[in-house]
Fold each of these.
Amino acid sequence: MFRFIVRRAGSAVVLMLVLSAIIFVLQAVSPGDPVKAYLGANASPEAIAAKREELGLNAPIYAQYLRFIANLLQGDLGQSFRTHRPVLTDLQSFLPATLELVIFSFLVAVLLGVLFAVSGSLRWKGGALFRGPLLVLAAAPPFLLALGGIVLFYAQLGWLPANGRGVDSSSPTGFVILDSILTGQPASIGLAFQHLLLPGVVLAIAPAIAIGRILRSSLDATMNADYVRTAESKGLTPFTVLRRHVVRNSIGPGLSMAGLQLGFMFAGVVVVEQIFSWPGIGNYLAGSIPVSDFPAIAGVTLVLGTVYIVTNAIVDILQVAADPRLAA
Amino acid sequence: MSDSAARVEGLRVSLVRDGVRSDVLRGIDLTVGRGEILGMVGESGSGKSVLALAMMGLLPVAADPQVDGTIRVGDVDMVHGSPEQLRAVRRNELGVIFQDPMTSLNPTMRVGAQITEATHDSAESIRLMSAVGIADAPLRFTVYPHELSGGLRQRIMAAIAVAGRPSLIIADEPTTALDVTVQAQVLDLLRELRDEFGCSVMLITHDLAVAAQIADRVAVMYAGRIAEIGATEEIIHRPTHPYTVGLLRSRLSLDTPRDRRLLTLRPETASAAERMKGCAYHSRCPLAVERCATEQPPLAPASQGDTAGTADTATEHLRACWRTVADVQGYTHETSDATPIASLARPGASADTTATPAAPAVRITDLTTVFALKGGGRRKRQVHALRGVDLTVAAGEAVSIVGESGSGKSTLLRVIAGLAPATTGRVELAGRGAQMVFQDAGSSLTPWLTVGDILRERLRPAKLDRAAASRRIGDALEAIGLPETVAALRPAQLSGGQRQRVALARATIIPPSVLLCDEPTSALDASLAASVLNLIRELRRSLDMTVLFVTHDLAVARLMGDRVVVMTEGTIVESGDADDVIHHPEHPYTRSLLASVPDIGVLS
């Protein structure tokens, strides 16, 4: 098991190096001139030349890459052309909002997905009333869901806010719910939660169905497995059979899908953050792309890629923990 | 306390399968005595496994079971008891051993924990592991099922079954998935469990010989009813039901005449509704009279003198048949009118193979195949599936390859077919190449193609026009004894025997030089298997093919091969004329295989 973790971590490092190389190459071949973007269109040729030298753009490409990696390891992602602040500083202020949204949304997706699977597999009465609408909603693209949600819960019913986080983002960690709990402010917990609810659920619907359907089919398969019949023949209660024999054996495909969906959610968050004016990296990215703010784009891409790789490494390790045959 | 471990009365069960409700058990009366081993014998579909599940109260909910009658185990009626009562019975009174110990044990749970779920005490679990013959029990307590051999896994199942000192162990085909040598061990184990723990055993099997090995009494089931029940000696040597006679006669033994067609039961021709009206066996029964089709025979004493009141029900010989015992036994002693396979007598076919050295159809020289197992850290594990195999098969010869699982026999076949790589060595094939027939015909036929499509695919190289191809398909189906209309059906609409015939048609529609058969009949009931074996032997003659036949069954090997080759651990240990190898084995391994074959003859 330990050896497996080491190997898996090693391959994650290699993947991240590859990712950084791809980002660097994209940066190098992109048509926009970073110096002009940085200094503005009216900069003098001397200023441009000086800046090129300063940014190391006259060095050979491999040297530029090594420098890019060296900077990366020191946490230097360059400076944003748009905000004129270090990209790292920008990410530090925008990432917590995104993490809060995605983690909340992911928990909602897993909860809905498990309910979807279990209600179907155990044939709960009335389960179809829950699964039907969820399936219909999942068929709609997220932006439509978001707009529909705003029209219904904000404009018509007035139950939920449709914009921002409701609480000042410049709290100590940037995670407003966490901060509110730490500083004991129940009012702002409620406020932050209200703001989180609509974007969080909108982002969760499609992943919930993906997780739910996979989990349902593996639950169904496991419930029919011979060893479940063996467990029943021991006279165990249905709950014990489910807990000790079914869950662990059917969790594998669900884990893979959950990991995959978590990655997709970080991509999907760009649209949702814009619609709800959520001050996260999705919004930051959306602002950076039109002005070719490459250091910012590269920074966000690197963060999203890292999240994706780390998530998948964790999923692989969890799967081995669930099924000892995979470690062999 | 009663003198029975379980008492089944008037049991009727109907289940929904593929959307159709059918009566699976149609009135079963049965008593399992204390300390008795009762063999339940029947073909697939006879309802024997459903009976086992009903006795455990574990009929599949998805099949919406409707149950009539009573099943008393201890003081509880397993039909009408509450879920809590049923669980208590399963915990305290019943133990179960299922067919496949690989799938019947939880793959993600250590075996010790799985036993302890039943014993609630790990010391007791280890004691039980030793009691069922597992060496180094404390060490093996913490391993996972996939780290054990098939025989050890079945012993783990046995340890779970005896946990809590059950009064009855239900063993549902406990040896079917195992090799013969392991099968013999598991049967011994069941008998020891009865002797040491004093529990009763209900042994469910499709093989009369397996039941005969250890059962005190045997019940023969057919279409959801008991056809005949009585002391094992009686059933084997004085059967009184035509179905029992048919089963005994279609069973292959090491002395089955090799030059004749195998006896088979008649195929079923009556519809399900027609079968339900009279005796379900009537359309297959050679002795059927008019009454058999209209009136269901009751289960009655076999010996005329007996009256039900006085006889001891626990040992009484009962039968459900309208014909008299004398009629059936007269039929039993009829000399078999089996037709010789005419062309089998092709002059000098097998005897002269050495005298007239035809060009070999298959020549294998020093073949090794090594599989690398993935993963496992730095130590890459390697499996030597084949270790230097030399084999030459003459054109037109039939060679049987026998061995247990892991012997490399299937790998050898797959290498010849080009489906597995040869690490070193050479494989030379003559002329028109090889075609393969697999064990599980169901999964070797593409489910969404019709039989016609499957056969047409193979005809593509022949570049026939549509009409010619259809004619060819019709001919191929006729050759394997299926009507032309089958071409429009998909594999799921066929029975197991029909599917294996289609697989044979696919392999032979363009006759190959070499037909490779990988246990093509081991998943079929005895009678169906016999008819497929007959078919392969006929096709071999009519299409002039060389046959390599892989099997774990020595009786089948002797029958299908001019020559028998015995493999173990990737090497050939013995090779020779089929009857010589079977009746005068030289290698100790061959002898140990032969010693493990369950044979009805052993009884007398």
Note: Chain A is about 75% helix and 0% strand.
Amino acid sequence: MAQKYELKSKEVWDGNMAAAHALRQAQVDVVAAYPITPSTPIVQNYAQFLADGYVDGEFVMVESEHSAMSACVGAAAAGGRVATATSSQGYALMVEVLYQASGMRLPIVMTVVNRALASPLNIHGDHSDLYLGRDAGWIHLIANNPQEAYDMTLCAFKIAEDERVRLPVTTNQDGFLVSHTAQVVKPLQDEDAYKFIGEYKPLNPMLDTKNPVTYGAQTEEEWHFEHKANQHKALMDSPAVIKEVFDEFEKISGRKYNLVETYKLDDADIALVLMGSAYETAILAVDKAREEGIKVGLLMPRVFRPFPYNEVAEKLKNVKAVAALDRSAPMGTTGALYNEVAGALAANGQSAIMTNYIYGLGGRDTTVEHILDVIKETNENAKAGKRVTDLQGFINLRGPKLSFN
Amino acid sequence: MATPKEMLTTWDKVQFGAVLPSFEDPEHKKRSKFHSYNYSVADWRVEKPVFNRDLCIDCDFCWVSCPDSCFIVEEVVNKRGKKQAKIVGINYNLCKGCGVCVEVCPTPIKSLLMFPEYVDNDEALKQWPKKD
Amino acid sequence: MKNITNLKEFACTPDRFQGGHRLCPGCAHSMIVREVVNATDDDLVISTATGCLEVCSAIYPYTSWDVSWIHIGFENAAAAISGAEAMYKALSKKDKLYNEDRRIKFVAFGGDGGTYDIGFQSLSGAAERGHDFLYVCLDNENYANTGGQRSSATPLGAHTSTTPRGRVSYGEKQRKKDLTMIMAAHGCPYVATAIPSTKHWKDLATKAAKAISTVGPTFINALSPCTTEWKFKPEETTEIADLAVETCAFPLYEIEDGHKLRITYRPKQKIPIEEYLSRQGRFAHLFKPENKWIIEEWQKNVDEYWDYLQRREEAGV
């Protein structure tokens, strides 16, 4: 039996420690992982928990991220709770197997510490890895600080393993800015956390050898479409369960999460849409802008996939201009968040003026002042009643002004 | 390779996660409709092996080398009280007509021979080579 | 360990890999797989790398398996089985096994592409970590599933679709990688070579039984003559396998604890390599006068390797 870890009502944890404690409290049966900056401390912390008797599951230190996710799939199909952690290049190496995990409907939880993708090499935070996995059929939850990294990871197990969902889930936190930044975190006690997540509910376990099952059959043109459609439906239906889980979590923690988070959006004329640690910077910028008389609010999809497009459109229905801020190199088009929000608005007949900003690549600083500039530009669009600023701008980029229209 | 019509289902009725159960009744080892045991590859054949029980010595070479698990075996007890396999026939749903069984059959006059698919088995047995 | 005495008794084993799969007529893969899964009475969980076996034994909505089975990708059969095996350990530690009364063994199958090449890293990792499983390489010396491209198991001079014989080429330029020895060098408690054959059925079945019952990572490299890509008649599969052994092109041996080598079959009279090569279309061009040196090279390699094995056995290292 794993020992109880004595926790104070307030701990000082960075995002990695917070995620590691959530994995420990979930009493994961198999963690198969490979180290990579900046998520390495998650598996190191977990290894220490194991070494100190706080975990009795198996911890498999494989020889690559590809094998990490493959072992996770093998373990999950075998029939038990499974989790891993990764970042960036490791995430990229896993991509093939991410699709397999979701296609087989295996409720694996992956705590991702977001980091840029090479080349050129960079170990710092941006959302390139998250965007890379966005079509992989996983649910992607966003955490902006260590507390949320902890909370989202606990919720992730409960969402993933729900019979109505049975899909893998990632929790995302910004490399270094969240993963290595120590803050006060209010944890649940071990027994409360485990009770919240609940016992693992087996479904088609390979280890029930009295009733053998085949995983990973080939579906060619007469079956593949039907299977993908079925899986897509499960993702599209999952928000109902996600909301339920968030509500239940609020009851035990007092912390309320939503499919779409907002800040001072109710009376806003303009809105910024962004996710990750920069959302917290933007909160400060919004307060400052409001002191200057600009009625600005913020929106963040807590759930990046399935994308809550109707909720996003509903929350943005009264704003005149929206700036979507993407923390990933868009490489040939507008950023993914811009595209999602624009699509959501268009689908609901809304016509707020939309612009796109690229920021924070490879851990580039984004300050309150930078966001204030975006707010002011967006406000120009709202006042003019049409787009008078660039379609795509770049925040805190050195050199001559870069923009696209 | 088309799926038989009765097996085709719609997107809302496909197997969850494409997972296939081997058995419909695991306790009694009754194989499910998803088991290839219930699929026929008979149309792959142009020639078929015919089995002549009278000549068979139950060496089981055919059983061990058949790539398609075609040989139907009955467990019997020999004179010394040991269990042994008796070949009782060929599952023609599973046989692709490769001819390995005939090749490995060691009896002086083979107890397995290939015949064109259209030849009736009784007719084939009548045509069997005789000892000189 | 299952006691394998004679074929009459072994043939009473209910098959757990069934027909109705779509492997080619005369395919050696299924002969090997049947013998391996029949060589234990324990329950099995199997992973299979992408390849002929996988593609042909699990075409939705059909499966040919009477045991739990998973296919993920081409390069990760060993990683997948190590995950499943880790889950078994975790659930037994936590007293959460699904069937307390059953013992489960773990087996992975991969072709030479999925084993020698793309899956080698995950195999090496799983072996090094010491998972309790048997990995069986179904070595047909090419990527048969995708139309016969060369792999690092393809032998010298073989025509494949990516090393074709041509006006200025004699086919594959490299010798076959010695994967069995590489796995032995991992310190695996048991590695062996085997072939599908009526003459050597017991050699394969016993090795499989031994490997499955050995605790830790074990490896069997099974030569799988490929009627389609080696170009011989489907009914000749086991005969070609026998010739590989009789010529010492593919000697049968086992190695315990990474070093104790034992030759499990010694041909009475080693047959010249031409007898093996000439029976396969993939080597037909080697019999042109200008390629005579390749056959000589083959014979030299075979002789040297056979000599090496014998000396290792004798020295007990």
Note: Chain C has twelve helices and ten strands.
Amino acid sequence: MRELTGAIQETAERLLRDKEVELVVGFAAGSLPLRNTPCFIRRPHEAQNLVWGYGCENNLAVFLRRRPEKLAVVAKGCDSRSIVELIKENQINREKLVIIGVPCRGMIDRRKVNRLLAGKELLEAEVNDGQVRLKGRDFQETVLLEQLLHDSCLTCPHPNPVLYDILLGEPVPAKGADSRSKAGEVDWEAKAPAEKRAYLFAELSRCIRCYACRQACPMCFCEECFADCSVPEWLSRSSLNVQDNVFFQAVRVIHLAGRCVDCGACDRACPMGINLHVLTSKMTKDVQEVFGYTAGVSLEEKPPLAAPISLT
Amino acid sequence: MLLLNKDQITSWLNKLIPAYQVFAPVKEGDYFCFQQIRSGEQAVLNYTNSRIPPKEILFPRSEKLFCYRCETGGVQLTEQVDESKKVVVGVRPCDAKSFLLLDKVFNGDQYVDPYYLTRRNNTVLVGLGCNQPAATCFCTSLSGGPFSAEGLDLLFVDIGDQYLVEVVTERGKELLSGMELPVAGQEAQEAARAVKESAVCSTLVDLGGLKYRLDVNFDDPIWALLAEKCLGCAACTYTCPTCHCFDIVDEAAGKEGCRIRNWDACMFPLFTLHGSGHNPRPTGKERFRQRIMHKFKYFVDNYGTIACVGCGRCILSCPVNLDIRQVIEQISQAGGDQQ
């Protein structure tokens, strides 16, 4: 991680100094343990604020749409795949974007950390050799990194950037098909329809309609979201209407079919800890099975809904 | 000051439940929230704080103001003012203070909101002091404190197996009637003092120069930089105990419907979108500036106090770790050489 941080800083500094780009979007140190925060660097000497860590959980592609300036972005596997889809949807001008690819070992799920600590407050954390040392007021625990990674990272088939101009660090091995069982995910397929409904209603009863999921998603960029539309009003504005919370999320996820790279950004953004990954992973799996399409892996392949339908 | 054994809490709450709607912290998913409880056992008082503040009990996320029905003779209206008596147990001092701030808005010189006010007048607040403020707490920077009784009717101080109960108001005292609680002796008072002394808010936020800056920095380029990573969601405002903006809509079908008030957030473009299509706050910069200005300048101009209680919820729930403490610091520092 330290080497990657150094390499990112050096690359960003050079790109800015040589005036190849006006802006570098990356991550800086966050204000909470195990947290990094998106940052925007415009001056060469500020490049030293850039870092790489296990808290670079946001998908930075969300900041890249329709930018006027020439810019660079630090992109892990999922960010790069969203960038590919955004290029295909004419939201990013490839000519004006320098992609600094960074192979990703997964990001830490702070909700898993909190569950593990059961109410104790995390004040400090350090990741070393696949182990995470967690420290608080009266405790210190060491946990395997694997246990704390996001489910979406544990099953990530594309940890390495698929599209880049500069690649920093060594590629990491992709997760195999058996990784899904390790993730401890909700076994969606095994549920009966009534159980699926009950699960979604229970999860989305906590929804407060803050739309953090939508805002964190690089692919949610409709000029007017159907949830905001008032003529006609497709759904109730009230978050106490759980059925409409489910309706909102279902339409949002279906709208992302063939575009969603299952990065987990929506799931991570949710302040209420609603399991949105269960929906996005099911949807991406279905798109793969039905259309044979994996979002974000190729600039050439047409998105399933734009490709001619074969009736054979 | 009285003493209440922790094992008496359940029976005490069970006694209150027939007479009041009782709200208490309950675990929901990974977080705590205030919910109406049916049995005293549901309340969990060894919690840090709720993800959604208890403001939603008095100012719900969504509430019916009135319902209507068109009939041949005219329109039939039904008012929906909630007059039920409520008790909220386990309120943290920061959240208690937020009710005093909300009072200024909903029970001001110009406007009185019957929906909020009726609930407010019928609600008794039982506070729980914070033995161990979180690293994101900064109530002491906003003239609050982990054991401040301001705005509460009762304040519980956790001294181990017992709560030392500070009776703040007559309403609070009434809640304990029939409990025959013993008066706290020297030892218990000593224990409470020790607990209070060891409860330190490690985070201090310097608000000294902030208002001065906000009075003059409306057009400062710093706003564009501060807002740059903001995604424009409402995680901060909806988890904020003092944010109080709302939108009113009609939900109708056929000849009947209801007028409904929902929480709204200044971070949404729709918040200020005019019917003409013009939007006076067209980008994230203006919207982010509004949030900060409203809390730290406009509210001060209007009511003489800051609309932040230092609960730290926005810090914990922001999806991009846009930290209000750093925002305050950056704004204040940007004006350092001009003061």
Note: Chain B touches chain A through 47 residues (CB under 8 Å).
